[in-house]
Description:
Helix Hairpins; 3 domains; two-stranded antiparallel sheet; 5 helices; 3% strand
Amino acid sequence: MYRNNRPVTPQYKPDYKVKERARKSDKIAKQKHAKKVEKTVKQVNPTDVSTDKLSNVFFVILLVIIGALVIGGALLFVKQYNSAPTKYYRWLEVKKDASSSQIRDAYDELTVKYNPQTHPDCKNCEKKLKQIKEAYEGLKKM
């Protein structure tokens, strides 16, 4: 085509606008795709837990462990001091299922047997008498 005896160069303005629109739409599509990918990554990624939630979980676990230790220690303490030690029964020379009257009788017999006033030459009598008194007091409370 000729105009004024010169060849007419094709006008690319419409093509340029089409390309610009295509670039913008590609850019928008990429941004939307990136947002979708970001959402799916957030849903799938297990390390995306906030530090506040994570610290709260660790704090609760720590409290549970400390509570279990305290309760366990208290139970051991109660068990240790509620039940009479086996040495008390051994010191009074009675069985573990002895009644209170049998324990009292054994105490009376042993205090007479190990009385340091009646046996002045016995060196272990005082120690043995202290053990017998301790055992009787411990078993009497039960």
